[in-house]
Amino acid sequence: MTEFVPAWLSFELSKALAPLTRKQRTTVLRLAEARIADRSMDTVFKRADCCARATWYGKTRDGVPVPGWRDDPVIANALQVATEHAHAFEDGRIERAIEKTRLKIAEAGPAAVDKIMLLMLRADSQSLQLRAAVDLLDRIAETASHARDGVGHSTVEILRNDLSRKLNEAANGNAAPDVDQ
Predict the structure, then answer these.
(1) Helix (H/G/I), strand (E/B), else coil: 89
(2) Which of 44, 55, 63, 132 could disulfide-pair with 51, CB 3.0 to 4.6 Å?
(3) In terms of Cα–Cα distance, which of 8, 2, 7, 3 is closest to 82?
(4) What is the largest CA-CA distance in the chain?
């Protein structure tokens, strides 16, 4: 049987695992994997390449407690290091997925803005123009909140409120819409 080698195995973790037997290493790595996947540790103890539950937690022989593998400081340290590395790897994987999604959204943004602007300028009703303009400003506000150039919500909110007021006035017949400003 091939030894289990997770993607998150590192030099530091290899050093922590070095003094352990193959079965101890596999048990430690599988337990760390189960912890980050929020799976029961019992799933690990049922595996042929891992220790049994009683071996991990300890047992009683003739009324005398026999410590389990978890009580061994070297194994406990290896499990701690393995769990930390597994969490770091999983966190990095999630961050990479979020960044990839953010980039896809950023790439699609200009086309969406163009469509909203076209609708804003060519819509037959002022109600559609208003909704398109407000949607555009909402997207600008969202982008500005994530940008590092210091543009904040306040400037965008002023523009949004001003545009909403002008379009509402135009819809009520109080003034002509002035959407070019």
Answers:
(1) helix
(2) 55
(3) 8
(4) 95
pLDDT band with cut points at 50, 70 and 90 for residue 12:
very high
Q: Which amino acid is at 81?
A: V
Q: Is 36:83 a contact under the CB 8 Å cutoff?
A: yes
- From the list 43, 45, 2, 47, the residue with the least C-alpha distance to 22 is 2
Using an 8 Å Cβ cutoff, are 78 and 20 in contact?
A: yes
Residue 47, both tokens: 């595996």
Q: pLDDT tens, 112-160?
A: 767 777 777 787 887 777 777 777 777 666 665 655 444 444 555 666 6
- Summarised one tens digit per residue, pLDDT across range 35-75 is 999 999 999 999 999 999 999 999 999 999 999 999 999 99
Q: Which of 32-36, 100-104, 159-163 has the lowest mean pLDDT?
A: 159-163
Residues in Cβ contact with 135 at an 8 Å cutoff, skipping those fewer than 6 apart: 116
List residues bridging with 67 in a β-sheet: 58
